[in-house]
Amino acid sequence: MNQQNHEWLKDHIRDIPDFPKEGVVFKDITPLLADKKAFAYTIDAIAHHYDRDEIDKVLGIEARGFIVAAPLAYRFTAGLIPVRKKGKLPWEVEAEMYELEYGHDHLELHKDAIEPGERILIVDDVLATGGTAQATARLTERCGGKVAGIATIMELSFLGGKGKLEGYDFFSLVTY
Ligand code: AMP
User: Among the atoms of ligand 1, which is closest to the Cα of residue 132?
Assistant: First the structure.
């Protein structure tokens, strides 16, 4: 599997101009999720990039990250951790504020979600400005985890998000 082979996935990613606000082109993955070949391929291609013995837990970022993280965790026989928006998790949390392409928000992680030294794969659908992934990597480390990698279906390279992830192993299937 190489970068070239994944390009066909773009046929299943829909552009929604001016959503959720004017000037943003929202990358809608629901057509990809609804297509049995594209969805299975997406999970397999991300899983293929990692050695399953090097991942202890997969961490999914609310909300579309959950959809990708869960089948990956199953594939790796790894645990699954949700990172959620402010106020959604019921137990004690660590929190980080982060910048979005369209605003800012808070992310939270249960304090006891990660055992010291566990190797964590962070997963989301889109890397845009990189603020979300960066905040999640910080939360992971604050909770004692080691970031084994950060993976997304796509990267919006014109927003320069990878610059915020220096020192981390970042992987995506397609680039815009
Ligand atoms: P960022 O922190 O800017 O990298 O934003 C990444 C997060 O926001 C991810 O959780 C994405 O789901 C979401 N996101 C940001 N920009 C877009 C976009 N253009 N289309 C779809 N999702 C986006």
Answer: 2
Nearest alpha carbon, ligand 1 atom 5: 128
Q: Please, what are the averages of pLDDT over each run of 10 residues along the chain (176 residues)?
A: 80 97 95 98 98 96 98 98 97 90 84 98 96 96 98 97 97 98
Residue nearest to atom 15 of ligand 1 (CA): 128
What is the predicted pLDDT for the residue at 99? Answer: 73
What is the reported pTM?
0.96
Residues 52-175, CATH architecture: 3-Layer(aba) Sandwich (3.40)
Q: Where are the domains of the chain?
A: 52-175
> Residue 160 C-alpha to ligand 1 middle, in angstroms?
12
| 3-class DSSP string for 33-52 | HHCHHHHHHHHHHHHHCCCH
Residue 50's identity, in one-letter code, is: Y
Strand residue runs (E) in the chain: 14-17, 25-28, 57-61, 79-85, 93-100, 103-110, 119-127, 146-155, 170-175
Q: Among 101, 108, 118, 155, which one carries the catalytic annotation? A: 101
